[in-house]
């Protein structure tokens, strides 16, 4: 039964993405030729339909989906959401939360070429991040700052609708191998990278209602979360969204101010320490709950 539910839920996710991704791409071409506000509103509506389809797929899978959302968060606000990154499923989970305004993501440049996902994200004006390495910048100094400029331009496109700008600060999905290679000081997390978050904060600070520090926890016996979901073996998902007023978030020029870069990285590290503790607490609660349910079923 678990396998059937997982298979059906995965099929729904694929069909949902194919349907709305195709419609968004086609309407994106219209937007390219006729940049009218009506077209942008229609694109936004299609995107919301995709988000609702993702929620339906999660419920269909039978996974226990729990959210703990700060009361200051509402669907008509503007937020910068900073989350840990575990699985491709993170995107599905965050888009399935109705309390959040339309989620927009910072995406790796390689995703631009993924059918439907890349084209849909392009049509919706999401930013594709392509970071130049130190070696590349040394060979071509003109590359320095280009990523910042692209970020600023992309973030300005978010002003037309209530938006949650989402940034996975770790820059990559968590695996034990990556965790060990980094010698991460956190038990459950990779080291956060401050650059993308600080840039988005700098560009959008005047428009944002606050920052949402988000902790994602999947309860599964396997570290391959998406595979666990497809097989119907993912038991529960916990999402905790904490609201942080902008007055409590260090702000400045990340590119030019070295002292601010240090300060902001320290701030982000402190947020990650809180997440690390939250993950331990949520994992312990789920283990206790599962044990109680097992005992009750044996009575």
From TrEMBL:
GO terms for molecular function: acyltransferase activity. Keywords: Acyltransferase, Membrane, Transferase, Transmembrane, Transmembrane helix. Coiled coil: none annotated. One of its GO terms (cellular component) is plasma membrane. The chain crosses the membrane at residues 12-34. Residues 79-204 form the Phospholipid/glycerol acyltransferase domain. This is Acyltransferase. Pfam families: Acyltransferase.
């Amino acid at each position: 039964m678990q396998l059937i539910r997982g298979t059906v839920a995965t099929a729904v996710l694929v069909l949902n993405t194919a349907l709305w991704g195709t419609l968004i791409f086609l309407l994106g071409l219209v937007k390219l030729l006729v940049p009218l506000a009506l077209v942008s509103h229609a694109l936004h509506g299609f995107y919301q339909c995709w988000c609702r389809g993702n929620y339906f797929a999660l419920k269909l899978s039978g996974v226990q989906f729990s959210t703990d959302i700060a009361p200051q968060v509402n669907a008509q606000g503007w937020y910068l959401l900073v989350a840990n990154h575990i699985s491709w499923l993170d995107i599905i989970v965050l888009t399935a939360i109705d309390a959040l305004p339309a989620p927009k993501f910072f995406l790796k440049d390689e995703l631009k070429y993924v059918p439907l996902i890349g084209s849909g994200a392009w049509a919706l004006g999401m930013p594709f991040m392509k970071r130049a390495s130190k070696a590349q910048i040394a060979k071509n100094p003109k590359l320095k700052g280009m990523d910042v400029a692209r970020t600023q331009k992309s973030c300005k496109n978010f002003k037309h609708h209530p938006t949650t700008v989402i940034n996975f600060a770790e820059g990559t999905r968590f695996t034990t191998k990556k965790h060990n290679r980094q010698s991460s000081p956190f038990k459950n997390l990779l080291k956060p990278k401050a650059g993308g978050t600080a840039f988005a904060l700098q560009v959008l600070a005047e428009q944002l209602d606050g920052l949402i520090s988000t902790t994602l926890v999947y309860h599964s016996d396997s570290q391959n979360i998406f595979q666990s979901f497809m097989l119907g073996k993912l038991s529960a998902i916990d999402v905790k969204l904490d609201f942080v007023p902008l007055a409590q978030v260090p702000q400045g020029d990340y590119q030019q101010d070295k002292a601010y870069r240090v300060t902001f990285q320290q701030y982000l590290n402190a947020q990650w320490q809180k997440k690390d503790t939250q993950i331990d607490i949520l994992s312990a609660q789920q283990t206790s709950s599962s044990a109680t349910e097992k005992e009750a079923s044996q009575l």
